[in-house]
Structure formats: structure tokens, C-alpha cells
Amino acid sequence: MTRPEGAPFRRILVANRGEIVVRVLRTCRRLGIEAGTVHSEADASSKWVREADASFPIGPPPVPKSYLDVHAVLGAAKRFGAQAVHPGYGLLSERAAFARACTGAGLVFVGPPAEALEKTGSKTASRAAAAASDVPVVPGSTRPLGSLEAAVAEARRIGYPVMVKADLGGGGIGMQEVAVEEELERAWKACAALGASAFGEGAVYLEKRIERPRHVEMQILVGSKGGVALGERECSIQRRNQKVVEEAPSTALDGEARCKMSGAALRLAAAVGYRNAGTVEFLLDRARAAHFLEVNARLQVEHPVTEETTGLDLVEWQLRIAAGEEPPAAPPVRGHSIEFRVCAEDPETFLPSPGRIRELRLPSGEGIRCDFGFDSGDAIPPFYDSLIGKLVASGPTRASAIERAALALEGLSIEGLKTNLPLLRRIAASEAFRAADLSTEFLARRSRA
Predict the structure, then answer these.
(1) HEC secondary structure over 241-271
(2) CA-CA to 353 of 20 to 30 Å: which in 78, 192, 380, 382?
């Protein structure tokens, strides 16, 4: 079988689950690429299994015994005859050992080289690379702290409040704020334990806590001859350090600040030998000075808002760059786009709420995009992330995007389990959100009000 005209690959395996698999399959269908996927026993009747050209069982529900089983995933790729593996986000997407295993099996890993993943996978290593590249970093550790005594000394050096963080991983896991020294030991142990259980490594470091920061990230595409920055995304509305609402562009940046952030992101990418799509994250202090936070060496959950404001398909460009092509010239950013993460969780406590979707009704209309990984009748298992899908609203202005989002959120209906839709509707209606009065403490301040 020959490669379809214009397609970077003939056949790929998407090694993930949920919404991102459905998203990658959509691009593959458009490009004429055959796409297979994998599933655990709990996901055997899932939407992505139904939509893929083939799907392969890889084990029981627990993630370590299925979606993180490299041998099982590569076995599925071999049986499918895949040329490349797209890892999605989370799971194996940022694991250097998996990237190397793909290469060793004769497969193209659709992501950065293993060497770049090693440098960006450790937050302290990427902080050191950022500092060496003249990228401002949040004050804190330049290497993991090997003992509680070292953490106490570091906290005294940078001053309270501090953030205790797991050195590996992401998604807000293994991260706690500490206001006074008496709280440090508890947070240290908790973050180390979470890091060990989630990422296989309990190394911990400290950063200075920036008061009421804005979380802004820069999307990049990098090839062998250089890279381009595709504009920033505002990700300040978070719950428990995990993003809830994202938008592009950010109201916090002017042209000069945007240019500086783009340059910083591309300098860092060059310093670590980065290739493919990635995101460089920053925290903005009250003076709106940007401080490097971390690199997300993969496609982000919130990538649709960049696609909507640039007109580029980021999954397509991931595949093309992985096949040896160079990224396109950066198109101008037009209009405004906002993404709302729809999750199976209690809207007040944020606790997961697995169950079966009795009926799912998605809105439509001008500027509305729905990226969902589940349909009516599908089950949300208790073993995995609670994300059901994403509602994206775009318009010529931020105000028009918000109005479209508010109407679409009212028209979105999910019956059979609890979701965070009431919270998302409150955010869209909030005067503070509409006025772009944003920080990572947005939800916490309203819960205290």
C-alpha cells in the first residue's frame, strides 16, 4: 500500500484514550491516513474504538497495566503495521524511554526527540536550561532537593510563601502551596509521594509563590531548521492547579510582551534540541513580567484555541514535522477563541463522577466547535481522567466569543452523571471573567466570596 498523496504517513497508531484520540483520528481521516488505536478492558466499547480503523486490547483497566505498558503498545503498533505512533497528551507522551522504544522498534515517534524529552521532563533541568538561555525563571531550585533539610534551607533562602512541586510530570499533580515553615514537611512528603506514584519518581523542588499570577503559554512548532511561535494562550482559570478555561490570545500581553515571550520560547527550544509541537509556559506577576514555568513537550489539551485563531491544524503539523517537513510560516492571529473543559466531576467539590452518559446533546452554531471523546450511551470509567470533551467558542472579538460560549454552554446537555457544566456556565456569566480580571486564584477567590 502506498502513502496517500500529500499524507506524511500511510498508517499510524494513536497510543492514548478519550478525546485526544478522536481528535487525532479526525485529522488522519482528512489526510487519508489509516489510524489505529489501543484500549483497555474498561474502554473496549469506547467512541475512539468505534471510529478507528482498528483497535487493539492492551490490558486491564489500571493505567500501568494497559496504557503505560510500552511492550503492549508497541505490539499493537506492529500488528497494525504502523509507521508512526502519536502519543496524544499525558500517559506516554512525554516519556523519553517510550520515544526511544518507538525508534528502536523502527517507528517514528510523533513528538520531540528522547534527548529533548529528558531535558524538559525534569522541571529543574528545564529551569536551568531556561536560565542559561536568558529566559527569566521563577526564583527557586535549580536541581531536585534531596532532603527535607535542604527544602527548609531553600524555602528560607527564597522566602515564603513557596510552591512545593514534583520534579517530573505535569497536570498540577504533586504541587502544593506552603505559607509557613510548619507546613513544609507535610507538603514535602505529599508531593514526593504523588510524584512517585504518578510519575515513578519522588524528586521534589521549590519555587517562590507568585501572588495572583496569570498563567500564559506560548505555542511553538519546531523543525530541524528552526521554529515558529503561533501565539499565546491564557490558562489562568484553574481548579487545584489544573486548567478549566483557556483562551487565545491573552489580554495580558501587548505586542512587545508577546514578541519577548515568543523569542524566549524559541531560544529555549533551540537550547534543548526541541522538535515538533510544544508549549512553553510562563507565569506573569502583578507587573506582568513573565517568568518561565515549564515546557509541555506534547500537544496541549487547549490546542484548539490556537487552531481557531491561526487556521492551522496542529495535529497535521505534528505529523508533517515528524515525517521530516519544516513548520509553516506563522500566520497572523485573528479573532478570539475560548475553550471550556467539560468534565465528569462534581461542580462544587471537583470530585470525579464516573458513570454512563444517558444522553449527550452538543450545541452547534457559528464559531462553535465541540471536541468530545464520548457519545450518548458511553461510560466514563472511574480509572482515568474525568475529561469528557471541550467546547470551543470563537468570534471576531473576545466579547463575541464569550457570548457565543454562554449560549452554547446553555445548549450543551449531559444526562446520567454529574458534570462541571454549572461551574462553566457561572464562569462564562461572571463579570470578572468578562472584564478579563484573571489570575490562577480566580476560582478560589470566588469560592471564598
Answers:
(1) CEEEEEEECCCCCCHHHHHHHHHHHHHHHHH
(2) 192
pLDDT tens track for 175-208: 888 889 989 989 888 888 877 766 666 788 898 8
Are 101 and 23 members of one domain?
yes
pTM of the model: 0.92
In a domain, 99, yes or no: yes
Is 312 in the same domain as 353?
yes
Residues 229 and 376: their CA atoms lie apart, in Å, by 38
The verdict on 172 and 270 lying in the same domain is: no
pLDDT of residue 5: 58
Q: Residues 319, 323, 325, 328: what is their CA dihedral angle, to the nearest 10 degrees?
A: 0
CATH of the domain at 332: 3.30.470.20
pLDDT over 90 (residue 14): yes
Q: Which domain holds residue 74?
A: 11-110
Q: Which amino acid is at 434?
A: R
Instruction: Please tell me the chain's helix, strand, coil percentages from 3-state DSSP, rounded to the nearest 5.
Output: 35, 25, 40
165, 286: one domain: no
What's residue 344's pLDDT? 97
358-373 per-position pLDDT tens digit: 999 999 999 999 999 9
152 pLDDT above the threshold of 80? yes
pLDDT tens digits, one per residue of 370-412: 999 999 999 999 999 999 999 999 999 999 999 999 999 999 9
Question: Is residue 124 a part of any domain in this protein?
Answer: no
Active site residue 143: no
The residues with which 208 forms a beta bridge, in sequence order, are 162
Q: What is the mean pLDDT of residues 75-97?
A: 97
11 in Cβ contact with 33 (< 8 Å): yes
Quick one: cell of 295? 515546557
- Taking a C-beta distance cutoff of 8 angstroms, is the pair 148, 164 a contact? no
The position carrying cell 505529523 is 319
Q: How far apart are CA 177 and CA 174, in angstroms?
A: 11
Instruction: Specify the DSSP element, H or E, that contains 76.
Output: helix 70-80
Angle at 160 between CA 176 and CA 235, to 5 degrees: 45
Per annotation, catalytic residue among 298, 320, 341, 404: 298
Q: Is position 128 within any domain? A: no
